[in-house]
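Subgroup meeting minutes
Present: P.N., E.W., G.H.
Scribe: E.W.

1. P.N. recapped why we're keeping a running log of single-chain structure predictions: easier to compare across weeks, and new members can see raw inputs and outputs side by side.
2. G.H. added today's entry (402 aa).
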Amino acid sequence: MYGFFKDLAIILIAAKLFGLAARKCKAPQVVGEILAGLVIGPCVLNWVQLSDSISTFAEVGVVLLMFSTGLGTNLRQLLKAGPIATLIACVGVAVPLVSGTLLYGAFYGFAAVGSTEFYRALFIGTIMTATSVSITVATLQELGALKGFLGTTIISAAVIDDVIGIIVLTCVLGAGGGEDGSVIQVLLNTVLFFVVAIGVGVIWNRVMTWLDNRNPHTQRVTIVSLGFCFAMAYIAEEHFGIADITGAYIAGIVLCTIHDAPYVERRVDISNYLMFSPVFFASIGLKTDISGLTPGIALFSVCFVLVALVAKIIGCGLAARVCRFSWPDSLKIGVGMMTRGEVALIVAQKGLAVGMVDSVYFTAVILLIIVSSVATPLILKVLFAKDHPMADQSSALKPAAN
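Output recorded in log:
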């Protein structure tokens, strides 16, 4: 048990050092934290193994990150971005799904529709549909672009993308014989979750408004808010099959209109910035092990990564352009949506568990997560710097405020 504290110490110190080094190189801090996980993990030094305790810390980190994002959301802009985000998410799922299926066919032959090989190809495309918003959120926070309409659109589209991805996953597994699942049941659970979330949200918002008015700027407001966040994360995952980060984000949306929402957001950011968030980003590197990589799988993995990244940029970017975003902003949305993380891992592990794909393809998924996690913050920083030359200076002040 005590080995956990040693691992935690190594992760936090390494993440901080690499994060500072990334800032010196004018890169977002999350890039350094991910690279720290690679260096101290199985890929290089093998000082730290990903344990259940570290995974739990990492999960808390991403849940708090999404909760904080919801707290800082402008509700009016979110409602305004809803239809646009839905279109972007739908196209952003469809293009990678088709691209991944065609890629598998190009490498291993095109199979007849309905065959086992066809569903294997379709599952490769399903892995590509996943979007991990957490790294994009952290990057947009650093750039000071999270609370604008563009940032809200990206976050909203990513949340909707998760819901669509769950539906697609269930359809593919059910049709391919991987598991018994009713598509209608998944759709029903999704609708029920949002109905319950709206109902509970209206009531809880009034409760928190009353508590906030009676106890402004107190710890009890923050504690009760955190309790609601974790409860929504649990309910979403356990009872409705929706990602826990979606539940946490909805919890933040529910509380974003209370008077002390900025106060709660700052309190959550402090603890998350100091401990949980660095563990989450470092854990991405800790999950990587390239010891079993062969030339054939390496070639497929490279093509898999390139197709997955380009497909998201094209799909989401063109959909954004149709919604009358400018070409530069459309590119930012496409790049912001191309990150893969815990959702892609969950999808891949589900496929492995039911025999839909072989374990050798897990290397391609890990490589996609690493490349997209490192590339997305760097590209976004360049894109935003072109429009806002002062972004580097303002983002540099962010850690000091925390």
